[in-house]
Amino acid sequence: MTSEARNRLIAIGAIVVAGAALAWIAFGSIGENLVYYWKPSEMLAQGTKAYGATVRLGGVVVPGSVSWNSEHTIVTFTVADTHKPDAAKVNVRSEQVPPQMFREGIGVVVEGSFAADQIFRSSRLMVNHSNEYRAPGDGGMPDDAWKKSLSQADEKS
Amino acid sequence: MPKWAPLISLVLVIALMIVHAASASARAWVWKVLAGFGAIGVVVVVYFGLFFAPREAYMSDVGRIIYVHIPFVWMCMVGFTVNVVCAVGYLFKANWKLDALAEASAEVGIFFGACGVTMGSIWARPTWGVWWDWDPRLISTTVMLLVYVGYLAFRSFTEDPDRRAAWSAAGVILGYVTLPITWFSVQWWNSLHQRQSDSQTVDPAMRVGYLFSTVAFLALFFVFVFKRYEISRSRQSSALELPPLQAPAVKPEVSA
Fold this sequence. Notes:
- The structure holds 2 protein chains of 2 kinds.
- In chain A, 31% of the residues lie in helices and 25% in strands.
- Chain A is built from 4 helices and 6 strands.
- In chain A, strands 1-3-4-6-5 form a 5-stranded mixed β-barrel.
- Chain B is an all-alpha fold.
- Helices cover 74% and strands 0% of the residues of chain B.
- Classes of the chains: A alpha+beta, B mainly alpha.
């Protein structure tokens, strides 16, 4: 076999293997084993097995559920699968100061553990913003508030 | 920025690339025009992004990073795509120019990828609250960049040009699988990273900015790849002309 014919064979072999690998990942069940976070419904479906383990929980902050303790060091809120009123919900208690983007209705990913008292205690709170980028209109955060919260974050870290 | 600016400049940049590819005599100056356009384009993007474009409603000034984060990552993906086309091309028709172009585009792709990831990390700190987290998009991007770093490492450790070209091409065809995985990771798995934006989710005044920025960086991408390609070609010619321990009887044809 000439080296040119060998190279063509290598090319076809590599393309076939690469295509098969991609198809396996895209259409196979690998997604079920690669879990970055559970939605509330997925975590609740685990039942007692979800208690105690360190997991990530992701969802949206239910509007009206955010409250702070008097020293402003602990924030509690409810995370739901979606914005629908009947979506599964989990109560979260976080001791971490949330990022500036944190607000009612936004996506969050919290790291921590769920317990039998049905409260998810979080040690790490991340905000999951959407792919929407809009000019300020109604409801946007005023720029001064942003700068203020940024400087607060600097002092604390 | 006028709505037509990205499209007009894209047509212009692609036309110049075609002129460069088609005419050997134009090769001396086309890259200089593209470098000039890219440099001016970056200045325009900096002014547009920092001062002209509106603030993002929730992220305020932090949202302005989209004008560099998105184009950088796109140029990385363009680089790796050029690379895989050259790799397949080399295996079907052993042409040293394709081997040199594959090497150049992979290296420039890694550069833009590293810049894009850095920008993403800077963006993540004030918005997500963390510099980094191992979510599916960030894992797949890291794996993709490491695959291409490995590709370059493999190439530099392999002495024989024929073996280097053939086996690195075969390897990088397999490695290219990481690119669609990275692209679709935000759709296939729960992820902290947001999904791809489209015209429905971005204010038109912002969209025009990152599209124009993409064209400006495409021009620079072309210049980087072309200069890096020339380096690869000169390395090839010196490697192919001087086989170790024996004087060349006949100069081998470099431009196959």
